[in-house]
Specification:
The protein has 21 helices and four strands. It is an all-alpha fold. The protein has a two-stranded antiparallel ribbon. Helix 2 runs antiparallel to helix 10 and helix 8 packs parallel to helix 12. The longest helix is centred in the C-terminal third of the chain and has 37 residues.
Amino acid sequence: MLRAGTGSDPAPPGPVSPRGDRPELAYGGRVTASAPKRACRRDLWAVAGAVALFVLAAVVGRVLNRTVYGSEGILRLGWPPLYAWWLPHAGPGTPAAVAVAALVVVYGPSTARRLPWRALVPAVWAAAMAWTWSLALVDGWGRGVAERLTTSLEYLRSVDDVHDVGAFLRDFTRHILVGSPDIWPAHVAGHPPGALLTFVGLDRIGLGGGAWAAVWCLTVGTSLTAAVMVTVRVCCGEELARRAASFLVLAPAAVWIGVSADGYFAGVAAWALALLALAATRSTRVPRLAALGAGLLLGWAWYLSYGLTLLVVPAAAVLLLARSVRPLPYVLLGVLVWVAAFTSAGFWWLEGYTTLVERYYQGAAKVRPYSYFIWANLAAQVVTVGPATVAGLRRAAGPLGRAVRGMRREPPTGRGALAVLAAAGLCMLLLADVSGMSKAETERIWLGFAVWTLPACALLPRRFHPWWLAAQGLLALLVNHLLLTGW
């Protein structure tokens, strides 16, 4: 608990080493008045560096885009490094978005401290839904919500082509490559069949069309805030989960969660890791059932997006923090359920992926330069995670080093454990980056990875949380009102 009448961070439990978690104790083994100021200046320098990276990517991108390939620039982007177009605008969601941002900045941190945990988790989800819905409606109901998933590249264009699920799965790979008969649209071809089957299922139960698809994606996508909260609590402690809550709500990533199928994918992935964390730490009465659920969601995630195989990185981090592999047999059983079902029905995951790689280089990836996107992709993530996350990741470097050095003796806890989780999220981003399979549009495609860096904001000094939250909200509002984002 905070001391009455102070705005300082809570003291860490137990004795603190001279180079402990609190930055004011990290200089010469004694408290120095200038230490917190130095740490804050370093936060600002880190943010300045991230902003400079984004500006450089924007400038270089505009220069490169002058190299015309066909009727478009070589980057195939309207406003590099983002897949967006310059279009200042406002909409019916504007007042609501401003109001939600202001409420979270002013009341979010204090509410997260006081609210009982069982009420806090659904409250965070509800607040994230309010924020994401309001941002989506800045573009209006049609352009921002109902028509998002109905474009020529999207899944809903192919829902009526699926008459028999068995035949669909057997023939799915045959329609991926350019030149194939009845070629799939880009997003359908770029993912395993589970993605399209989701929207086919919604259509079959009477929830067809762009509006219902958008509601589904936004609802599941925003639920990742609750899943991340649960994971942070069981792996790192409730205090840090509460400190991260407002930052999870007001994340700029909401611009792309509402409304894209990748938000739905990210939500499924987040709950897979949350259930794994509950099972590994035995924070539930039914750890085996939780582990099986984690496996089922993890397996389904792999049949939603090939890239989500990188979830093995944070999954390994969770098991490492819990010092337990007991959930693994049940997790593998859950994954194998989907592998057996899809394979027996005629779709082989590895064949689908290798065929996709060939299709990928038949399209825009053939001309988009790897030498630009290898670093511009990371610049795009600056906008997705926001300046507070950049500063939080800088703060995580110290606890991460201590956690790694002490890992042989005991598993890291508290800030060290949080640093490990954030590092796992960053590692997924880097692995996806070097793969070359995501040239551009990574602000959307990498949502399932980027959200795991957001909890690093909990490492920022509590007295500055309102300022950092304001920066997060302002960034999202500027992006959504100045640019027309697309996918």
